[in-house]
Amino acid sequence: MKIHIKNEIVTTVDQLSNELITTSHFLHQHPELAYEERESVQHLTSLLRAHGFEIIEGIGGLPTAFVASAGVDHPSATIAFLAEYDALPSLGHACGHNLIATSSIGAALALQPSLAALEGRVLVIGCPAEEKGGGKIALVKAGLFANIDAALLVHPSNRTELFKDALAMLPLRIEFFGKASHAAAAPHLGINALDAVVLAFTNLNALRQQLRPDARIHGIITDGGRAPNIIPDYAAARFCIRALDLDYLHDLRRRVVACFEAAAQATGATVAIQEEGEEYHPMKCNRTLGALFQANLETLGEQVEQTPEDQELGSTDVGNVSQVVPTLHPTIALTDRLDVVCHSAAFAEAAGGPAGDRATLLATKALAMTAVDLFTDPARLRQVREEFQHA
Ligand SMILES: [Zn+2]
Ligand SMILES: [Zn+2]
Fold first, then answer.
1. 168-177/270-275 β-pairing
2. Which residues are found with C-beta within 5 Å of the ion, ligand 2?
3. Which of 19, 96, 164, 326 is the most buried (most CB within 10 A)?
């Protein structure tokens, strides 16, 4: 039955391919920033509704989050496909989230006709704001992943890889408050908030030498004064701090805050430190899910690259999901060019063209086939769960 259903699903994806590519291109041509993905959500939910999915919009307190569901009422398993659909400022879909949304929805649509036979249930969880803010973190906190057996999504990349760690991350905003004065006539009456920001950077640069190699601290100055002849009474900066595990991230936070406070003390400014959004958690990879996905990908003619899992890392709110439910988050190469990397104009172009279309359909098929494995093989699903519990 399993092989038969997988063959049917591949045929169904081919039949849906026009609809799916149209969807991917629509998102690509209407890039929307984090939490503002209204047109994208409208397009995606219309497609799901047209295929008989029930939709709840605005979940977890996020207007552009949704859950679409189909399948039997008392399922043997519930599989969630995660859709991302936010774009980047000025670069558009340079992270290829149009592919993520389309392949996750495509997999759900392809499975839908077989769900009665499979005694299964599929969800598409529409997750806004991956690039900024971490929409999935709010959805995790709202309990959206509580009754799900596995969460699956594929991200486009410059390589096809199964597993990649992700760095825990905390975004911080700091503000220094000083006192304005004439910079030539009366500097002794001022307190220079910009100097405090400059010292904060200098302190952090000194701290870096004593940090573990996985730690990352990077930032920008967002306010640096208004005119060179006024001692700046206000200056601000934004930083991200990252590390492979939460314990070290929390240690890092304490040491970074000390750098900010020292800068305030040295200049006489006061400092306000704010967490700018939620804490991103590290990735908990599931080898069992990865092996299933790899076998399906190879059946479809795509080879997986073996690369170090702990290098060239970013952060993602999929990490938070992976801590509460077994999660699959592999990547599929968009092109055969290694220099076409995420968050570049070339990547955005590829994501909206034939390379993106190929990757979308491939990801759709492999995701749906992996769900078939989980629906038809209870022992394997148990293994997925046990690995998650013991990891
Ligand atoms: Zn990105
Ligand atoms: Zn991304």
1. antiparallel
2. 95
3. 96
- For the stretch 176-228, pLDDT in tens is 999 999 999 999 999 999 999 999 999 999 999 999 999 999 999 999 999 99
Residue 345 alpha carbon to ligand 2 centre in Å: 14
Q: Residue 243 C-alpha to ligand 1 middle, in angstroms? A: 18
Structural domain 168-275, CATH architecture: 2-Layer Sandwich (3.30)
> Which amino acid, 48?
L
Domain ranges of the chain: 2-166+281-390, 168-275
- The alpha carbon of 131 and the centre of ligand 1 are apart by a number of angstroms equal to 5
Stated pTM of the model = 0.94
Contact by Cβ (8 Å): 150, 326: yes
Residues 103-149 pLDDT 10s: 999 999 999 999 999 999 999 999 999 998 899 999 999 999 999 99
Q: Name the 3-class secondary structure at 192.
A: coil
Which class does domain 2-166+281-390 fall in? alpha beta
| DSSP per-residue letters across 339-351 | T--TTSHHHHHHH
